[in-house]
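Supplementary Text 2. Reproducibility record for the structural model of the 188-residue chain.

All settings were left at their defaults, and a single model was retained for analysis rather than an ensemble. We include the record here because the model underlies the residue-level annotations in Supplementary Table 4.
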Amino acid sequence: MSKRKMQTIVIAFIAIAVFTTTAARAGAANTPQASQAHIIREVRHELATLPYYGVYDWLQFEVTPDNTVILRGQVVRPTTKSDAEARVKEIDGVSKVINNIEVLPLSPNDDRLRMALYRAIYNWNSPLFRYATQTLPPIHIIVKNGRAVLKGVVDSKGDAQLAYIRARGVPGLFDVKNEVIIESERPR
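Retained model, structure tokens:
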């Protein structure tokens, strides 16, 4: 066999090997699990980087097997709800968005309670102050009609309990629910 034919055969085998490997990777990336994992990462990123998403809002989502994203939670601004839906719709692979985000009613009393709860939980002399220094504090304060719900993730059960105790001390609240979970107990 001539040297030229041998080179052609070797190049053909290399091309086939590269093409097969690339095709296999592309096929693996398009599996439903890989696609859903990508969508979950992207939705989480988009929701966390919403311009007005803050400590008084709570957003969560679910991705169904047909790549429909269901948005849930409570927000204080209607624009946060619409922005969340618009951003999630733009993610590659999302087939549909169901927006079940609740816009909390306007209430000066609820606004006063939100600020009082924030001060009680994240006060500079509180052991929880270290959470307040994060870009988005992990304990979210949801207030609706004088009732508060604490949501988020903290390092220890003691921190979750302390946030609840401090919130219970805020005058004017009808009820406080503690839905703060511990980092080590968080589902992955």
